[in-house]
Write a structure and sequence with these properties.
There is one protein chain. The chain has 498 residues and is an alpha+beta fold. The protein is 47% helix and 20% strand. Among the domains are: 109 residues, Beta-Lactamase (2-Layer Sandwich), CATH 3.30.450; 151 residues, Alpha-Beta Plaits, CATH 3.30.70. Helix 2 runs antiparallel to helix 8 and helix 10 crosses helix 11. The longest helix is centred in the first third of the chain and has 69 residues. About 2% of the residues have low confidence. The strands form three sheets. Strands 1, 2, 3, 4, 5 and 6 form a six-stranded antiparallel sheet that branches. Strand 1 and strand 2 form a beta hairpin. One of its GO terms (biological process) is negative regulation of bacterial-type flagellum-dependent cell motility. One of its GO terms (molecular function) is diguanylate cyclase activity. It is a multi-pass membrane protein.
Amino acid sequence: MSVSSAQPQDPVRSPRSERLLVLGSLLLVVAILSIVAFLLVRERANAELSATRAASNIVQLIDADVLRNVELYDLSLLGLIAASQREDLKNVSPAIRHLALFDRATAAPYKGDILLLDNKGDVIADSASVEPRNGNYADREYFQSHLSNRDPGMFISRPFRSRKPEHEWRISFSRRLSGAQGEFLGVAEAAMRLSYFDQLFNSLNIGRDSSVNLISSDGILLAQEPRPAEELVGKDFSNRPNFQRIVKEGNGSFTSVSSQYQDKRLYTFSKVGNLPLIVVVALSSDEVFASWKRTTVVVSVATLALCISLLWLTWLFCRELRLRHNAERELAQLAATDALTGLANRRTLDQALRHEWFRAQRSGQPLSVLMIDADHFKDFNDRYGHQAGDQALRTLASVISAHVRRPADLAARYGGEEFSVILAETDSAGARQIAEYIRKAVEQLPFIEGADSPITVSIGISTWTTATDISLESVLFAADKALYQAKENGRNRVVSSA
């Protein structure tokens, strides 16, 4: 049994406290990181929700404005058709008939001319002048659509270039004129300049990298703000995945990569009333989450600094705990060890002996005790001095320790020049064999410098067995008595108790 295993464990701090401290700190760091991550994720969702709400408000504003203006156009067309079919206006002067056909709504900004075409596409009434212009529009999409389709509803054309010198982009709103039998009589058409949408969209502050789009339900781009580098008005986007999803869902929002700009965008969209028009606001994800990203960087750096500081403080505290633990262990080692010989001291011997005594009582295994005394040590000490005496004791301790190798055995300094050995699970014969090894090894030691005779030892043995069943004090007394018997018999010998 080593000195450390024989000493009491209560005074020594266990490293378990250090492990608990590290575990607690790691759990705290994980908890902090989890909470911060949760809050950042929630803030990102809030940023997206706020952007979606803002985009929805923009979409609703555009919806209302576009729908109101289209309704004005439709009222003008309906009024034109109704007035053109009045019998009482056929014989009035051209000026009066012109006033009746075209109401004041046609003078609104961004509105082009309103025309009334016959069944061949020729102009028979023109809002721009009393005398209708010379022109035929039978090739226009709206005319061909009404010619082949009896649907009396309003038709919205694809964007087209005006035949006027400025060649500006326009779209047409038109209705079919039908006879009593449903025969095709002509078309009432009103043109709108697409610059109207440019002016409307330009008044909205949606961010530098975001866009507002007006698209027909069949995928034709009518207007976009900001203006793209290439001319995209009139381009067909019906095969784009994002447009197909917009048409499928009708109203709502989603995040996707723009096929036009190749960046991630938050799309919010809505159909304009019952019209074949769709308003799409595409907000750049970089702009939507710009503030959140700045906050994330600041919070992440602060959190990382906090966690590193916490772990650093934990390391410092663990180091202090470890140093204290080592110091206490060293103190406990010193308290259990004889300073001169390095063997266990008397206090450790008494604790180990009591521990092995109870263990022998439970197991029924024998327990032997050796009491060893240096022969004529007082005379040796007086003759050669204390330093030589101390050296002799250290040498004896080294020899004794070399022959006590089993984990459960213990060699100790009993006091002065006297030593003791505990031999667990060892009967009298085994104890005597070990005692003889020790005695002979001591006898064969080289002479101490200046001495004229070798150092020898006398050894007394006492063994407890279930047959003897004596007390622990009796075992010690018997070993001590056997030691003195060895001295009386001439020293340098081994004697076992009877």
